[in-house]
Amino acid sequence: MIGHWQADPEIAYLSSRRPADQIKPENLRACLDKLRQMGFKAVMTPALHPDEAIVFLTNGFQQVDSLAVLGHSLRTLSPPLRTPGSKLHLRRGRRSDLPVIFDLDNRAFPPNWRLDEMSLREARTATTHSRFRVAELRDNGSEPMTVGYAIAGRTGSMGFLQRLATDPNWSGRGVGSTLTNDALEWARSNRCTSLLVNTQKTNRRALALYESLGFERTKTQLTVLRCSL
Fold first, then answer.
1. Domain 76-192 in CATH: superfamily?
2. Could you give the CA distance from residue 23 to residue 17 in angstroms, rounded to a whole number?
3. Helix (H, G, I), strand (E, B), or coil: what is residue 63?
4. Domain range summary for the chain, segments of one domain joined by +
5. Using a CB cutoff of 8 Å and minimum separation of 24, what contacts does 102-107 make?
6. What does pTM read for this prediction?
7. Tell me: the pLDDT tens digits for 149-186?
């Protein structure tokens, strides 16, 4: 799948649903040639497992970012604490939410990690089942205010927190933990045995949030790669 990286007309975004061990070097090189002909100056990959990255690293790609992977066992998941009278509510995300979600996401993440329509679609289709949740504040009948969202997914017995973002103006007020606990409960109710999430190794706030909720760092690290064309 080819698209524009963060809507940059000179940088391509390249991802594949084919397992890495099935990607042939000659096919990858042919794809890079095609991207050059299309006028792209560089190409980026999604976050890749070390085994997936090999074919790219041996064909001109270089690492530009590294992600930590954290896991949470769902076999002994404790119920989250409920805050009586909380004004924070979760509901199913809708297409009409997307403009607000994109704005929130752009304010929550640095440029290289901001969501666009292609990356949202990839997050929602990377697993066999997915769930889009929106967190909003409701106060005395006033118009609800969107303050966060999450995309969770599951394939087989494995759950994934694909994306989590909180409005920076509401950071530290329980929005992220509420959405994460919601994803944990959803994964367990669908018979998943664990939930995985990844984040930049330099994102101390996100790491602290996940670890405070019982996630533990795994030995796996994902890598994001770039190739100049």
1. Gcn5-related N-acetyltransferase (GNAT) (3.40.630.30)
2. 10
3. strand
4. 2-67, 76-192
5. 104/146, 104/147, 104/148, 104/149, 104/165, 104/167, 105/149, 105/165, 107/167, 107/168
6. 0.86
7. 999 999 999 999 999 999 999 988 899 999 999 999 99
